[in-house]
Amino acid sequence: xxxxxxxxxxxxxxxxxxxxxxxxxxxxxxxxxxxxxxxxxxxxxxxxxxxxxxxxxxxxxxxxxxxxxxxxxxxxxxxxxxxxxxxxxxxxxxxxxxxxxxxxxxxxxxxxxxxxxxxxxxxxxxxxxxxxxxxxxxxxxxxxxxxxxxxxxxxxxxxxxxxxxxxxxxxxxxxxxxxxxxxxxxxxxxxxxxxxxxxxxxxxxxxxxxxxxxxxxxxxxxxxx
Length: 225
Known about the structure:
It comes from Lachnoanaerobaculum gingivalis. This is SAM-dependent methyltransferase. Pfam families: Methyltransf_18. One of its GO terms (biological process) is methylation. Helix 1 (5-11) crosses helix 2 (29-36) and helix 4 runs parallel beside helix 5. Strands 3-2-1-4-5-7-6 form a seven-stranded mixed beta sheet, with helices on both faces. The protein is elongated. It is α/β, with parallel strands linked by helices. Helix content is 43%, strand content 22%.
């Protein structure tokens, strides 16, 4: 199984011999890859829709890994048990949906579990939710796949809450501290975007103030890197 750059970045977070639940598995590419490359022995491929699970079943059979991957029709973690897994992948969806899945899956807020998250939107809101709920963001990575930027984070439940600055919520404390080259490219693109928006003469003063504030954060973050 050959993965896209985005999926490979997610798969690279999975530790050897984990038992994985891939939430929103779509066609089960990540579980198949992990089994095929002897990284794990067992995975649960979960999706809310029957269509993707049928395609996942076909892929799993074609790659000869049916004994290692359990298909489960599930809305988020609803049909999973905390006893079954120790690694939970929630990726390929918006930040609001990831937060909703986590909110409904509080039985999995367990120090034994690793969560691998990749929100496509509202990454700052996901980070804010995590640190308020007692999670520690262990590390993050970024990649560019087909011209789009993606962030992946590994988090664990600790019960302890920490404070993040606005810049750290927006762009990732780990990524900033480690001067991630893809983050720097993203910040440069963001800077151009906000400068272009500010050039619009129809903006009211409140909106201009908001945009200038974001530009200041972007420039300060770039200077740190």
